[in-house]
Design a protein that fits this description.
Blueprint (H helix, E strand, L loop, with lengths): L1 E6 L7 H14 L5 E6 L4 H10 L4 H11 L3 E9 L2 E2 L1 H8 L10 E8 L7 H12 L3 E2 L4 E4 L14 H19 L10 H16 L1
Parallel strand pairs: 1-2, 1-3, 3-5, 5-6, 5-7
Antiparallel strand pairs: 3-4
Helix pairs in contact: 1-6
Protein name: FMN reductase
Enzyme class: oxidoreductase
Pfam family, one: FMN_red
Length: 203
């Protein structure tokens, strides 16, 4: 299976990319996936060009195909002014609005303060619901103080939230995957089977 990680971190190194990598690693421990990363920072000019011209160039088109052909997504954005970044939103705006239909998605975000954590629920989750994706129940937010933090008596730590979200995405990936042994039976074979059955019952 193909897991695609879309990360909208603007700096290098980036806490957004770090969270994305931790989520992808946790999913890969639970499901047999090939992971590919789409760094939106590297596509910023191409995305802007697509808005101006109405057409994605070859580089952006390849990224779009990578995302639409994925079996599942991990989508991570920094939070600015209480919502996802403009770069993050712009990338998903250039996708066809049916491109993610039925696709399992784990949403996550980073920010300087825990006060922005609800952006996952009032901004990211509705965005992917509009795109008809299947968003896992646990959204993962990492504030500055979460890095290296452990759970307390009231809340799970970042590590626990990552593991729970990875469990949910892996379960969806496994559930939606077509079994390898399942195949489409040609009509001729189905007809031959019916004839054999009729022959036996006629005897």
């Amino acid at each position: 299976m193909k897991l695609v990680v879309v990360t909208a971190g603007l700096t290098q190194p980036s806490s957004t990319r770090l969270l994305a990598d931790r989520l992808a690693s946790a999913v890969s421990r639970r499901a047999d996936v090939r992971t590919q990363v789409v760094e939106l920072r590297e596509l910023a000019v191409d995305i802007a060009g697509a808005f101006v011209t109405g057409f994605p160039n070859a580089k952006l088109r390849a990224a779009i195909e990578t995302v639409t052909e994925a079996d599942g997504l991990v989508a991570v954005t920094p939070i600015f002014s209480g919502s996802y970044s403009g770069l993050f939103k712009s990338f998903f705006d250039v996708l066809d609005n049916t491109a993610l239909t039925g696709k399992p998605v784990l949403i996550a975000a980073t920010g300087g303060t825990a006060r922005h954590s609800l952006a996952l629920e009032h901004a990211l989750r509705p965005l992917f619901a509009y795109l008809r994706a299947v968003v896992v129940p646990t959204a993962v937010y990492a504030a500055s103080e979460d890095w290296g933090g452990a759970a307390d008596s009231f809340t799970d730590g970042l590590g626990e939230r990552i593991e729970r979200a990875a469990d949910e995405l892996a379960a969806l990936l496994t559930h939606t995957r077509r079994p390898e042994e399942e195949r489409l039976v040609p009509f001729e074979e189905q007809l031959a089977a019916l004839r054999r059955t009729d022959g036996i019952s006629g005897a």
